[in-house]
C-alpha cells in the first residue's frame, strides 16, 4: 500500500451490517463488483474489553459482533472475491485472533481512539504484514509515539490514514494540507478517510481532493442501501456514488502525475523552438562577412524547428556571417562562423606558469 499513481480504494463496512451476516456478505460482494481494492471490517470479540461494562452502548454493540468462526468465513469469502482484507481491531482479543489465525489478512488497523493503547500496539507488533494507524484527531506527539513504538520493534511497514468523522463533517475542518506535512514529517505513505455526508452534493469531489494532491489511498464507507438509516450510514455511499468516485480518483491521479522533471513527448513537442517557442531569425537581410549585432536579430515563431535556443542569443552576437541571410531566415551555426574556444589547462589544474600550485 505504498504511495503510487494508481488509486487504492478501501471500502469501509464498519457496523453498517448491524450484526446481519448476510447483509455483510452483500456488502463484500458489491465492493468487489465495483472494483475496489480492499474491504475493511471492524473486528470486536469482547465489547467489555473495549468499553466499560456499564457503558450504555454495550447491549447494542453485542448485537453487531461476530465470533471467530464467522470471521473465518467472512475473511475467506473476501479473499475469494479478490479483495485485500483490512481488519480494524477494536479490542486486543480480535488482534490476537488475527495473529494466531492462518487467514490472509492484508493489514491490521488501529483506530485513532486507541492510537497510543500500549496493549493494542504490543499485539500489533506480532502481526506480520502492514499496520495502519488511524491518525485523525491526533496530535503529532501521539502519532510519533505510535510510530516509534512500532519501529523500535522492527515494524516498518506502516501506513497512516488521515481523516475524522463528524455529523456532518465540515469541509473547513478537514484541512487536507495537513496530510502533506504529516507525510513529510514521518516519511510514510498517507491515505485519506473521507467522511463527507452521504447526501452532500459535493461528496464525490471532496472524496478525491486528496488524490489531486497525490495521495492515492482512499477509504470510504460503503452501504448497499444508500440513505437508509443504519449504523454508520452518515458518510456511507452507495454503488453509483462509489463508481463515480473511483473514476474521478483515477482521473485526479493521472492529472497529478508522478512529479518527475523529465518532460513527456508532448511537453518536448510543445517546447520546440520555432513551431512553438520563438526562434532567433534575421531581422533584416544580412550580408556575408557581416558580424551579427542585436539589431540584426529578432525572435519569431517559425514553421521550421530551430536548433538554437532562445537563451543562446548573446552567443550569436559578434559572429561572422558566412553567407547571405534573408530576412526572417532562422539563424543557426550553419550560417555563421563559430570558433570553439580552446580550453585553458590552467583553469582546470590551478597551476601557474612555474608549475607551482596557486
N-end to C-end Cα span:
57 Å
How would a textbook summarize the main sheet?
8 strands, parallel, barrel
The amount of helix comes to 25-40%
CATH topology value of the largest domain: TIM Barrel
Strand order, sheet with most strands: 1-2-3-4-5-6-7-8
CATH superfamily annotation of the largest domain? Aldolase class I
Radius of gyration: 31 Å
H/I helix tally: 15
Low-pLDDT runs? 341-358
Strand content: 15-25%
Could you say which overall geometry the principal axes of the C-alpha atoms support? elongated
Average pLDDT metric: 90
Helix and strand pattern: EHEHHHEHEHEHEHHEHHEHHEEHEEH
Which class do the helix and strand fractions yield?
A: alpha/beta
Number of domains: 2
Oligomer designation: single chain
| DSSP strand tally | 12
CATH class category of the largest domain:
Alpha Beta
CATH architecture of the largest domain: Alpha-Beta Barrel
Topology (SSEs and partners):
Blueprint: E1 8-14, H1 21-34, E2 38-43, H2 47-50, H3 58-61, H4 68-80, E3 84-89, H5 92-100, E4 107-110, H6 118-125, E5 130-134, H7 140-151, E6 158-162, H8 171-174, H9 177-186, E7 190-194, H10 203-207, H11 209-212, E8 217-221, H12 239-256, H13 265-270, E9 279-282, E10 297-300, H14 313-316, E11 320-321, E12 336-337, H15 345-349
Parallel strand pairs: 1-2, 1-8, 2-3, 3-4, 4-5, 5-6, 6-7, 7-8
Antiparallel strand pairs: 9-10, 11-12
Helix pairs in contact: 1-4, 5-6
